Amino acid sequence: MNICSIILSAGKGNRMQSSIPKPLHTISGKSMLQWVIDANIAAKITKYVIVIPKDNKEIEAVTKDLETVVQPIPLGTGDAVIQAKKILKDFNGIIIICFADTPFIAPETLKKLTKAVKNGSKIAISGFKKSEKNNYGKIVFSKSNQPSEIVEEKDAKIRKIKSEYCNGGIIAINSEILNYLDKIKSNKLTKEIYLTEIVKLAFLNKEKIDFIEINENEILGINNQIELSKAEKISQDFLRNKAMINGAKLIAPETVFFNFDTKIGKDVVIHPNVIFGKNVNIEKSVEILSFSHIEDSVIKEGSVIGPFARLRGKAIIGPKSRIGNFVEIKNSKLKEQVKINHLSYVGDSEIGKSTNIGAGTITCNYDGKKKNKTKIGSNSFIGSNSSLIAPIKIGDNVTLAAGSVFNKNVPSNSLSIGRAHQVIKKIKTN
After folding, report:
1. Which residues are catalytic?
2. Which DSSP string do the residues of 153-196 spell out, in sequence order?
3. Mean pLDDT of the chain, nearest integer
4. How many whole angstroms separate alpha carbon 261 and alpha carbon 160?
5. Is-contact 37 7, C-beta < 8 A?
6. What is the pLDDT of residues 269-278, one digit of tens each?
7. For residue 198, which of 218, 169, 163, 165 has the smallest C-alpha distance?
């Protein structure tokens, strides 16, 4: 059967207290909306429709290459699906309804829900068992142990419904069931149309309904910054454990923060208080010392980074190189066994193997209009407190004197001094 996912992403998200649309808030560097899209892709669901709010340019920009439908007025989950129904009128198969603010839904759960519908159920709902007091909607079961109704928590209290099974929200339906949406009445108080009402209608019409039990974390809803921080902790714990299971040593795991796409090889040692941004690839046997910040970089085998190092902007660190304290590398390619041990900025540069960059060295890559390139050959030594004004080329086996400014190319096998002559004058004393 064909499968389509409807991802509800049109809520206002006022409780986030942010100018950023709720679905675009990130967890471990990835937006909540993208978490849900990726879960669908992992479950082999390649067709999805995203319900977005009216006149929201940020969400429109993110979803411009995807199939979307606008919910003009946020009148509840049922209304959101009704909007999606307009462009799915010719669709025949299984429809999964997901929520952009419940990012941790597992691909395995989506597969279980779709399998239940494939096997003959008209609806498959998700839920979990929780005996402690909570605000989740409650799942009511019939005498034949089939879900018969989902009741909002406030209504469950009024009706004195006692059920330990809570609504997970994620639901799979046979596309034929979409017709029931037209029969759902809006709530008298909120004027909203609740998607959960479709379960009661289907049960009254003797449709087969299935129940899939899931982990509560899968449907952790994000409605404010506190819940977003809880989601971040869940994600970070998962990423830390994944790194350690795959052979990395994290000395103080709770202080290390990964991006969702961080790649780490075996026998990597990560010291406390290290932060990884997007697009980082760390090969085996690398050591990263404390208080380093790394993003958009490749660190090759056997290198040592930090402490207090910053790598960014497509930095490539060659094998067995040493990047020391208070060194920043940006958009630069270093070959093997390069040493930049202290207090330096290297930007838009290429550095050959076994070259040593002295403390306080700066590649002056910006001339006020554009970035320029610095090229340094192999087996060269750049003296401390040197400024290399790009564009400039330094050859192999070159020594540049400390405390110098260089603005001309230096050929291989040379010594170059670019500093003012030292002058000493005696001071007359009485």
Report:
1. 342
2. HHHHHHTT---SEEEEEEEEEEGGGGGGGGGPPPPTTT----TT
3. 95
4. 46
5. yes
6. 999 999 999 9
7. 169
Using the Cα atoms of residue 201, residue 205, residue 207 and residue 209 in order, give the sign of their dihedral.
positive
Measuring CA to CA, which residue among 288, 298, 364, 282 is closest to residue 335? 298
What's the CATH number for 225-416? 2.160.10.10
Considering only CA atoms, which of 171, 198, 150 is closest in space to residue 94?
171
Q: What is the DSSP letter of 366?
A: B
Note the pLDDT of residue 132: 82
- Mean pLDDT to the nearest integer, 367-391: 97
Give how far the C-alpha of residue 67 lies from the chain's centroid of Cα atoms, to the nearest Å: 22
Predicted pLDDT of residue 162 = 80
Give the span between the Cα atoms of 389 and 106, in whole angstroms. Answer: 52
Reported pTM: 0.91
H or E element in which residue 341 lies: strand 339-347
Q: Where are the beta strands (DSSP E) in 23-146?
A: 26-27, 30-31, 47-53, 68-71, 93-99, 123-129, 138-141
Name the residue among 177, 171, 197 with its Cα closest to residue 186: 197
State the alpha helices, DSSP H only, in 168-326. 197-204, 225-245
Domain residue extents for the chain: 2-219, 225-416
DSSP state of 80: H
Q: Which CATH architecture has domain 2-219?
A: Alpha-Beta Complex (3.90)
Residue 157 has pLDDT above 80, yes or no: no
β-pairing verdict for 304-305 and 287-288: parallel
**Could you give the CA distance from residue 357 to residue 380 in angstroms, rounded to a whole number?**
8
Residues in the chain: 430
- 3-class SS of residue 304: strand
- 427: amino acid identity, one letter: I
307 preceded by a cis bond (ω within 30 of 0): yes
Task: Establish whether the linkage from the previous residue to 391 is cis, with ω within 30° of 0.
Answer: yes
Q: What is the pLDDT of residues 77-118, one digit of tens each?
A: 999 999 999 999 889 999 999 999 999 999 999 999 999 999
φ, ψ at 55 (rounded to 5°): 55, 45
Kindly give the interhelix angle for 32-42 and 107-118, rounded to the nearest 10 degrees.
50
Question: Which residue in this structure is represented by tokens 């067709």?
Answer: 47
Task: Give the pLDDT of residue 160.
Answer: 77
Output the CA angle 417-418-419, nearest 5 degrees: 105
